[in-house]
Amino acid sequence: MRRGAPVVLLGLLLALVLGSYIVYSQRVVVELRRDASRSSRMHAQILSALADPSPDAANAALLDLANTIRELGAPVIITDTRGRPTWAINLPFEASVEDPRVAAHIAVLDRENPPLVEPTIGTIHFGDSRLVKSLRFIPALQAMLVAFVFLAGIYVLRTRGRADRERVWAGMARESAHQLATPLSSLAGWIELLADRAEADPTAARAIEYMRGDLDRLERVAHRFERIGRPAKEAPVDVGELADRVARYFQARVPTLAHAVDVKLALGQGPLVVKGDAVLLEWALEAVAKNAIDALAGHGGTLEISAERTADDEVRIRVADNGPGIPRELRARVFEPGFSTKEAGWGIGLSLARRIVEEAHGGRLELAPSSEGATFDVILPG
Fold first, then answer.
1. CA–CA separation, 101 vs 114, rounded Å?
2. Minimum mean pLDDT among 49-63, 75-89, 98-112, 319-333: which range?
3. Among 44, 113, 236, 249, which one has the highest count of C-beta atoms within 10 angstroms of its own C-beta?
4. SS3 category, 377
5. Separation CA 152–CA 47 (nearest Å)
6. Across residues 130-142, what is the average pLDDT?
7. What CA–CA distance (Å, rounded) separates 117 from 129?
8. Cα–Cα dist 268/308, whole Å
9. Can you tell me the distance from the alpha carbon of 10 to that of 19, in angstroms, rounded to the nearest whole number?
10. In sequence order, what are the beta bridge partners of 237?
């Protein structure tokens, strides 16, 4: 239903444009017929007055003509040779011909149509009728609506194309997770077999322990691939435990000799529980932490992961390093997909983390101001 919503919306807009065009066209036809009827009646009244020898025929014809002009809706002001109004009809205000507003309105009518000079009557100043005004503005409005529908169509096509690509990638990710399941199960069996034969060798036993840890890690990664393209879960997540797990994972894998990296953990007081998907949140936090560790590569330094509840009853996870930092001119682009300051970087980690935090959990991932290095804040609603 969500995928079909843009198409339905575009169909409704097209129906609106076509419907408005049909209604407007019918209205124009009706108005043109009425104007033709009024014009015919005016000619008949003039011919009838000319053929009637009675002295009151001319006055009656003029009265009928005035009523017909009023029905046409076109504003008219007649002035004498001195430019003084002598007759006015269909003005946007009620006033006598002596009212100064009538004389001032002549300029408005002259901008719409040039005045006509009749020696026996005076100068006739007239404006546009309601039909003429609608013919001037309604087509422009319809053209704007058509342009809007055209742009909406382009947006729908691009959105559907992007959605199709995302479905393909999600399908590939879930298929990869499915394919990884068999070798992971086999590796787990081999590790158990090696453990039974390495009881007398402390080095082998320690290696097997690390192998089990890496196997668990691979299983979690495969499980993450299964979560791509699916709605995020809304289960209680202990952010403190999540931050501790990520910190311990990197503590066992960062350099400890040349260019050593020190991974620290600091947790605030009180419960740090939020509603969310633990698998996706751990993925996002690891992506941010991995970005910081990559920044420290070749330099060494400190990475601190902290979690606390803010005054706004939100939970903030802060990942801060004292590395070279991010240049000011690049800070606005760090979350763009495909953007990376590393030569071999894909530019996916931070954009993926922001998508998990903001789109799947309604939180925020921000690059916070810092005096040294780079500081990223993952803020989740409590």
1. 20
2. 49-63
3. 249
4. strand
5. 56
6. 71
7. 20
8. 4
9. 14
10. 274
- What is the DSSP annotation of 43-103? HHHHHHHHH--STTHHHHHHHHHHHHHHHHT--EEEE-TTS-EEEEES-SS---TTSHHHH
User: For residue 286, what are its two tokens?
Assistant: 């690891």
Q: Which residue in the block uniquely carries the two structure tokens 């005004």?
A: 133
Question: CATH assignment of 234-381?
Answer: 3.30.565.10
Mean pLDDT of 43-58: 61
* More confident site: 291 or 139: 291
Q: Would you list the domain boundaries of the chain?
A: 5-134, 234-381
**pLDDT score of 2 more than 60:** no
CA distance 268 to 305: 11
Q: Which residues contact 259 (CB under 8 A, 6 or more apart)?
A: 296, 297, 298, 299, 300
CB 113 within 8 Å of CB 126? yes
Torsion angles phi and psi, residue 200, rounded to 5: -90, 0
* Pairwise CA distance, residues 356 & 283, whole Å: 9
